Amino acid sequence: MTSAPLAPPVPAREAAPPAPGRRPPARRRRERPTGLRISRIVSRVLIAAVLVMQVYPFLWLLQTSLRDREDFAASNPFSIPTHLTLDNFSRAFEQGHLLRSILNSLIITGGACLLLVVCGMAGAYAIAVLGFRFSGLVRGLFLLGIVVPVQVALVPLFIDYSRIGMLDTHLSVMIPLAGFALPMALYLFLSFYSYIPRELYEAATLDGAGPYRIFARITLPMSWNTVVTVVMVNAIFIWNDFVFANTFILSEELKTIPLGLQDYVGAMGNTDWTATFAAVSITVTPLLLVFLVLNRAMIYGLESGASKG
Amino acid sequence: MLPHRSRLSVLVFLAPPLLLFGGGVLLPIVQSLVLSFFEWDGITGLDFVGLENYRALLLHDDVFRTAFGNQLVYLVICLLLQVGGGLLVASLLMTITRGREVLKVLYLMPAVISTPAIALLFQRIYSFEPEGLVNTLLGAVGLDALARPWLSDVSTVLTAVSVPEGWRFLGLYTVILYAALLSVPRELEEAASLDGANAWQVFARIRFPHIMPVFVTTLIMATTYALRGFDIPFLLTNGGPGQASELVTTYMYKTAFTSGHYGSASAISVIIVLECLVAVGLILLVLRRKAD
Predict the structure, then answer these.
(1) Is the terminal CB of chain A with fewer CB neighbours within 10 Å at N or C?
(2) Hey, what domains does chain A have and what are their CATH numbers?
(3) Nearest chain A Cα to B179, which residue?
(4) Domain total for chain B?
């Protein structure tokens, strides 16, 4: 009952866009008929052109992965294929270690997201709900992390990891990935926790609930929507991470998808493009499907992250 | 602030994020700073050299200077495509009434694809033999003379490695700026157009000033991301041919992990942090003052 008015901002925000959609085109058309019609056509053409630019490369990728190897090599690679084949996919699975790298990517993404969500939630709870003397300072310290480039951590972490024998482990990639994503996640949780009314906590305190109980009974159950947003926004970047994995992972068995793809080209000597693109399609498609289904949470996270910053 | 909170409970909740952030981000930053004052090959002992690494980079290292210039070009191209392009596309989306939500999602698609996949894709798009997309298109409009191997031509390679990065996040900035444009009060725009303002005037006088805070944020995001841009140039050309597409970031990576000069590499990474801080400071200084 209490949670109804506090329903996290995702649905509310998403409901907003259609309303302003109604502009007054009729009146404008009367004022400047031809000029406006031309500008409308131009803007639609541009919108379509950008759409082609953003989507076509992906379609081309899929089309190439379904194309016969000889056909691809012989004809213009951008023409429509004459017949489709799934041959490339079986070659992609045979020659690469796709399943293994998918598994590695799942482990690292899952682990890093878990670390990120637990730490983001706990930190935001300590700063925004519990409060302490230097909370402003700690908050500032975390938020500063948003502008820190990841390159600064590569050399020191590489040295530290090799000293303590942590180089070439899943954890060695998860820690910096989660660490560098933490400021943004913390920020999203902080801004969400500021919507939870004080009275709720006060009432719980009067009933004798301590900080742990209040977290478990009030804050945590209300955080799920923010958790989805945080995971969606970060999972994509973590899943696609190249630089940390490329630096800290040395052995074949631990390679993630982005590294696995790299291997592909080397192993196949740049010639088997159709199988390579089949591998690319396999690795891109699951994420793309998740994105197409859950994009609202991600788009919400992106918008709110920037507009409140 | 909860009335009945113990010090211990604050610590329990604060410890995990502080550990993660401290160990994964803060400590490495401090280490980089310290290491940048040493000469170290990773095997023999540390050799304190003071500011020598910085002096050598800034005064005597031609590769670093080239890389720095290249990174600025990379930055400009990314900003034009991402913030400029994003603002344009977001404004265009405001002019249509249907399908905006779908378009937003489709525009974001490239942001979901990993950089090695993008690098593979663009390798084919730019390729000369066999003919890639760019050269095919040039041929189709009768500009065969302009066809070239975009990634091995010294004069085009830097632009060629910058464009994919700009393209990749165009949708991201479009979505953010579009959300901001939607928040501009309708009444203001309508009042302005009733007073005879044209579309450009409505944009320049009403919309843009209103979305200034979000614009500043996107500008900061795009700038700091471009200054740390690494993956695509590293994968496509690894700085080559020669140093034609070498960026500060790829040079840092090579200095550390190919040449093994960890001290010098740390100095470069500190410079990258400083670049980001200076850029953010400049943006805030110039645009905030303008906004006031």
Answers:
(1) N
(2) 27-90 (no CATH), 96-267 (1.10.3720.10)
(3) A303
(4) 1
B107 has a chain A CB within 8 A of its CB: yes
CB contact under 8 A, A50 and B27: no
Name A28's Cβ contacts closer than 8 Å, sequence gap at least 6: A36, B193
The mean pLDDT values, 10 residues at a time, for chain B of 292 residues are 73 92 92 89 79 88 92 94 93 86 87 86 81 81 80 87 92 89 86 83 87 88 90 87 89 89 91 91 83 59
The beta-carbon neighbor of B175 closest among A16, A155, A303 is A303
What is the CA angle B179-B181-B187, rounded to 5?
Answer: 125
Interface test with A, best of B9, B13, B89, B247 (most A CBs within 10 A): B13
Question: In this predicted model, what pLDDT tens digit does every residue of A165-184 receive, in sequence order?
Answer: 989 999 999 999 999 999 98
Give how far A300 is from chain B: nearest CA, Å.
9
DSSP B125-189: HH-TTTT-HHHHHHHHTT-GGG---TTT-TTTHHHHHHHHHHHHTHHHHHHHHHHHHHTS-HHHH
The CATH number linked to B216 is 1.10.3720.10
What residues of chain A lie within 8 A of the CB of B188, using their CB? none
Residues of B in contact with A138 (CB under 8 A): 14, 18
Which region, left, alpha or beta, applies to residue B281 given φ > 0 means left and ψ of -120 to 50 means alpha? alpha
Within-domain flag for B83: yes
Residue B216 belongs to a domain: yes
Which ranges in A211-256 belong to alpha helices (H)? 211-214, 220-222, 224-239, 243-248
* Residue carrying the six token digits 């302005």: B192
In 10 A of CB B47, how many CB atoms? 11
ipTM: 0.85
By CA distance, what is B172's nearest residue in A?
A302
Distance in Å, alpha carbon of A308 to nearest chain B alpha carbon: 8
Sequence-distant (≥ 6) Cβ neighbours of residue B14 within 8 angstroms: A122, A123, A126, A127, A132, A138
Chain B hits for A273, Cβ within 8 Å: 124
Chain A residues whose CB is inside 8 A of the B176 CB are 302-303, 306-307
Host domain of residue B230? 34-105+161-291
Q: Which residues contact B74 (CB under 8 A, 6 or more apart)?
A: B158, B161, B162, B165, B226, B229, B233, B247
- The DSSP output letter for A128 is I
